[in-house]
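Hey L., structure's done. Input below.
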Amino acid sequence: MKIARSYTGRPNVIVFSGAFHGRTQLTMSMTAKKAYAVGMGPFPDGVYRAEFPNLYHAPGHLEGEEAIKYYIGKLEQAFVEATPKQSCAAIIFEPVQGEGGFIPAPIEWVKAVRKICDENGILMICDEVQCGWSRSGKFFASEYFAEVNAAPDILTTAKSMAAGMPISAVTARAEIMDQVTPGTIGGTFGANAVAAASALKVIEVMAKENYPEKAKKIAEKCNKRFSEWKEKYEVVGDVRGMGAMIGIEFVVDKVSKEPNAELVNRIVQEAVKLGLLLESAGTYNNVIRFLCPLCVTDEQLEAGLQIFERVIKNCLN
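Output:
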């Protein structure tokens, strides 16, 4: 946000429903889930929220082009009711929402956002802290956007970048970075040589062993199995994602699509007793987000999937 504000000279940003961008005072205001911000206000101004394109829950059973048009309309509404376009520095979103429930940004929606940004001098920022570094089937999920001429102006990454060592990165064109007001970007833990060395080695291994391809192979196996579960179990409402980032949304039934957080909590608790770590997500905590390590063996993956389905069956009986 500092970089975008420095470059554009504008104060405001637009974020989205379901977004997670962090736990600092500023990023708590950007993050949609306020369970992470209880008692932490007041929050900074200049952050406005639009509706993210969750196609599974699109109103009126809208699909395809009509659904995209609806969600772009919601973004345009923010320019009327929240921040004028000429006061908007950036539009920020996750290519695959993490805490929001592993909801991928539809390509056609991204293209429309890119067009809005280009026409109005707004920067498009992709937060790839969770989805970056091979999980999506490419090194960066926004590479899919670049293929349709909708690459972001600024990219943020971290997490998998150094296999556990603390490091994060912001990438942008030189003309954008050069406009940053001197002294505004920095921090106590910047320029950590050990973390940087770790990141360089991790990136080298990812490239040498083709980790994006590993993610695609994991995705192929898992999507096949998860799709079978969707047909088999009334409580499995939706399976979606990008590459090896897959969200399984559990519902009370497929017609109502009512969130089934209680079942997800039981699945997580029972799975750990059998040696499988699962993590819930979603606005209503009714999504299992599949974040399998990309170095998993075929045997480990199969064992995990068997435990996962066994637990679903047990929790339904």
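The chain has two domains: 2-207, 211-316. The chain is about 40% helix and 15% strand.

-- N.
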